[in-house]
Write a sequence for this structure.
């Protein structure tokens, strides 16, 4: 957990007259669970969108490992080893859970359109390997029994797990989770925490946006706090939760007193 995996240097993004991010700089280390928190509208998802290629920052730069992220194209970002889930679940509702995870593997496949049409031996082997891997990932996230059910028929918690499995299918080095516990009950949240800990134990670093402060404080190694697009604190959980500006951002100016 000593070497830096992701570096954000002075990331800024505005929409018209609204400054969504203002000179945000932070570093995420290999093997780390790193929390990104803040009130609604603080710029957290905008930061994710800039990192994963959905938005182009107005200024600043991301560096992943030793490589600058300069393409700002989602498919190229995935191939570099960054995968994400979304605040609002984005599954293929009319495809099965298994098919959703197989789609996530597409960025790592070597078959081309010709081999797909001709159904070459290599194509068939790769397709079978993809299906096997997808089944393993569904087992990993705890929903293998629902492999052949349509995504829209899964419970909300299972849809969240399916989206994580699909992201893992891209073979990421960094997994970005945007409010994965949103809408979950206490038992589902506890299971999610165990899953995130397992993912980290398997060598994948995690960048986590989450409003469940108890989950964040108990899970993250370090936390960054955004407020009105600015980074107001970055430290270990015990320091962050006592920081006056963090308390003010969440509870109001009189809360610290």
């Amino acid at each position: 957990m000593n070497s830096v995996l992701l570096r954000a240097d002075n990331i800024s993004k505005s929409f018209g007259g609204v400054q969504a991010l203002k000179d945000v700089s932070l570093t995420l280390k290999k093997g780390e669970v790193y929390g990104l928190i803040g009130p609604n509208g603080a710029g957290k998802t905008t930061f994710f969108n800039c990192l994963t290629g959905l938005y182009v920052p107005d200024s600043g730069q991301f560096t992943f490992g030793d490589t600058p992220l300069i393409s700002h194209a989602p498919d190229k970002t995935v191939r570099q080893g960054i995968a994400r889930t979304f605040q609002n679940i984005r599954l293929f509702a009319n495809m099965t859970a298994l098919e959703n995870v197989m789609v996530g593997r597409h960025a790592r496949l070597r078959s081309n359109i010709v081999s797909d049409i001709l159904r070459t031996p290599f194509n068939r082997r790769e397709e079978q390997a993809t299906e096997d891997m997808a089944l393993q990932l569904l087992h990993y996230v705890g929903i293998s029994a629902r492999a052949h059910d349509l995504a829209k028929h899964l419970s909300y918690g299972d849809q969240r797990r399916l989206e994580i499995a699909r992201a893992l299918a891209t073979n990421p080095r960094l997994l970005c989770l945007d409010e994965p516990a949103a809408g979950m009950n206490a038992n589902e949240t506890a299971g999610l925490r165990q899953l995130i800990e397992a993912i980290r134990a398997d060598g994948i670093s995690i960048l986590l946006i989450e409003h469940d402060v108890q989950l964040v404080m108990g899970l993250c190694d370090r936390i960054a706090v955004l407020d009105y697009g600015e980074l107001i604190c970055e430290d270990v959980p015990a320091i962050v939760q006592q920081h006056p500006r963090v308390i003010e951002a969440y509870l109001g100016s009189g809360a610290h007193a």
Q: What stands out?
A: Residues 4-81+172-251 form a domain with the Rossmann fold fold (CATH 3.40.50.300). Residues 61 and 70 are 8 Å apart (CA to CA). DSSP finds ten helices and ten strands in the chain.
